[in-house]
Amino acid sequence: MTRVFSGIQPSGELHIGNYLGAVKNWVALQGQHESFFCIVNYHAITVAYLPDDLRRRTRDMAISLLASGLDEAKCTLFVQSDVPEHTELQWIFNTVTPLGELERQVQFKDKAGKQEQVMAGLLNYPVLQAADILLYLADTVPVGEDQVQHLELSRVVARNWNARFSPDAPYFPEPQPKLTPTRRIVGLDGQAKMSKSLGNTIGLLETPDEMWNKLRPAITDPARQRKTDPGTPENCKTVFELHKAFSSAETVKEVDENCRGAKWGCIDCKKVLHANMVAELTPIRTRAEALQANPKQVDALLAEGGRKARAVAQETIRTVKDKMGLDA
Ligand code: SF4
Fold first, then answer.
1. What residue intervals hold the motif 'HIGH' region (predicted)?
2. Quick one: which H or E segment has residue 77?
């Protein structure tokens, strides 16, 4: 059976870009494969942060994930720091990862260029990612396109370790990417990425009124200055893409026709989208409110997920130490 691993940063409440770009896909995968989903808080500490804030963001992320439909009976949802074997395996993998491979990583170069002082953790971040995945012997990783290079590094690490310590029968699989089917959701302001730091998102748990207040002024096709101007849905990346994600195929066809034929205005179009978003997201918000009212239940679910994950992780570490002569 395929084993799936994926991680998400503890960034607090999910926004609809994260939901459509990753989490909705996880919910679909959890019933089909043995799945491990991890809130990767060790990855969140390579930049300055406040401990209480990280704690809150971790719990909020767990609530968003559970409310979105991750089900503890169908997957293992846990927090990375509850399973210390992640960092143990990372150290081991540091010893089989060429420095040049890490320095070549595009994300490292991007992030390092923006920081005054670069910490070693930022450079070694992809090694921890390799450990996250391989600790569970996962062979499939649902990723966005920007993560494919990191996954290549996980394969290099697996290959190098296997060549040294398990040459006859490779112990670690070389994990393959499973590209997320949902397209990347652009920001409400038309920027290429929907991101909290850019302030161009709609939160997954926002009320219908809050959603409308953000959707109403969202950028559309600039050619549609007046209601009578015909438009091109492909040039309306935010609203049309969101229709494709939240509306039925029939509605998307109608949107296309009404836009090209100037049969309605952008506000009419956005009202239909808003209604469909509210229909899909209201049950998620209701579940989240129930979880927010019962934080002990969330903590208990995460603790149980951590126990399940740790049992698998300890088994891997036992084998790794045995093969490396570290079990004396
Ligand atoms: Fe975008 Fe809809 Fe306006 Fe066309 S009618 S430009 S798809 S908001």
1. 10-18
2. strand 76-79
Burial class (CB in 10 A: 0-12, 13-18, 19+), 323: middle
List pLDDT tens digits, range 71-104: 999 999 999 999 999 999 999 999 999 999 998 8
State both tokens at 305: 């997920």
* Chain CA centroid to CA 299, Å: 21
Architecture of domain 3-185+295-324: 3-Layer(aba) Sandwich (3.40)
**pTM for the predicted model, two decimal places:** 0.93
Residue 284 assigned as binding residue: no
Q: Which CATH entry fits the domain spanning 205-289: 3.40.390.10, 1.10.260.40, 1.10.240.10, 1.20.1540.10?
A: 1.10.240.10
Q: How many A from CA of 269 to the centre of ligand 1?
A: 6
Domain segments of the chain as ranges: 3-185+295-324, 205-289
If you count DSSP H runs as helices and E runs as strands, how many of each does the chain have, helices first?
A: 13, 5
Please tell me if the CB atom of residue 233 comes closer than 6 angstroms to any atom of ligand 1: yes
DSSP structure string for 147-178: GHHHHHHHHHHHHHHHHHH-SSS--S---EEE
Is the ipTM beyond the 0.85 threshold?
yes
Task: State CA 243 to chain mean position distance.
Answer: 21
221 C-alpha to center of ligand 1: Å? 6
